[in-house]
Amino acid sequence: MADVTMTDATMKLSSEAASRPEGLRGIASDWSSDQRAFKSASWGKAMMWIFLLSDTFIFSCFLLSYMTVRTSTVVPWPNPSEVFSLKIGSTSFPLLLIAIMTFVLISSSGTMAMAVNFGYRHDRKTTARLMVLTAALGATFVGMQAFEWTKLIGEGVRPWGNPWGADQFGSTFFMITGFHGTHVSIGVIFLLWVARKVWRGDFDQGRRGFFTGRKGQYEIVEILGLYWHFVDLVWVFIFALFYLW
Amino acid sequence: MQAAVDVQGQQHPIKLYLIVWAWLFILSTCSYLIDYFHLEGYLRWSLILLFMILKAGLIVAVFMHMAWERLALAYAILVPPVLVLVFVGIMGLEAKYTFLTRSLFFGSGS
Question: Band of the pLDDT at B3, cuts 50, 70, 90?
């Protein structure tokens, strides 16, 4: 009996899926002539993917300019292992904070993936708890990044110079990690907002949302999950290219 | 009420996510060890890139479900970033040239 709303794409998918060609033929067939191109995704999911693609371009540009600036400067670049090491007692642990931050963000991606899975099972409580846990891990990450910023600013890192090497280190660092941290923060807010809707049973009761006035469905958890995994993905690149390189 | 009706919510066993999750931790540890063992030069760079691509691939394919989407969506999203690599190549050349001219004209020799 009328389960949660099935979108247009879903209806078509279940009845016509068998007849759709696969592979490269499928690409041509999906895209050709006057039709909705993305058969396996609702408009909400497709738009989130397209937004993430645009965000990929933005972060690519930042990382690209970081590469350009680092390659073209004749002044040696500060050594990330030394800059980002944490001193505990008398021992210096290179990149310790960054390793913990990576661990935290990957954990949050895992909890998000599980939240999506439980969301589709309509297990409200578990889904909401996992989403709040994901948000908590994300907030922890931002907190650690804020600590990192405070420490570096205290040590004299500015967008126009630093005590250890090429002047451009500070500006690229603050720009890239700042944009990433902002994305994480926005994700945390969205996670808490949607977790509240899930907890309250909005998607089961067809309750209309505050901002859009539309009834949502559990797919929103998956769409939010796409955003969150993207945030983790960007960190994978930042970690590899800025901190490790 | 059975949740299996949601065709869009392809139900994959939780085990798949846990396995991928474990691999992400392993690969992250490997990445960290590159620095811990002070690997240098081409070995360092190739390993950094390798682990980065593997982690990115796992996240996009499994966590973001791309492996189960139709190719029309997959290609629409994944091909453009490949083109960004062309941009990376161009800027790499540009940056090296800038470095060269800076060394020649502003270096201690001249």
Answer: very low
DSSP bridge pairs for A93: A86
CB atoms within 10 A of CB B33: 12
Question: Structural domain tally of chain A?
Answer: 2
CATH code: domain of residue A151: 1.20.120.80
Q: Is A203 on the interface with B (CB under 8 A)?
A: no
Q: Are A69 and B94 within 8 A, CB to CB?
A: no
Closest Cβ–Cβ partner in B17, B24, B35 for A94: B35
Q: Residue A111: exposed, middle, or buried by beta-carbon count in 10 A (0-12, 13-18, 19+)?
A: buried
Residue A73 touches chain B, beta carbons under 8 Å: yes
Would you tell me which residues 86-105 of chain A have a C-beta closer than 8 angstroms to some C-beta of chain B?
94-95, 99, 102-103
| Residue A165 confidence class, pLDDT cut points 50, 70, 90 | very high
Interatomic CA distance for residues A211 and A19, integer angstroms: 39
- Same-domain check for residues A20 and A67: no
Look at A60 and B87 and tell me if their CB atoms are within 8 Å. yes
Token pair listed for B25: 């931790």
Domain range summary for chain B, segments of one domain joined by +? 1-68, 70-110
Cβ–Cβ of A121/B18 closer than 8 Å? no
- Residue A179 and residue A96 share a domain: yes
Say if residue A34 is in the same domain as residue A58: no
What is the chain B residue with the closest CA to A43? B73
The ipTM assigned to this model is 0.86
For residues A21 and A129, membership in a common domain is answered with no
Give the structural domain span for A27. 1-40
* C-alpha A6 chain-centroid distance: 27
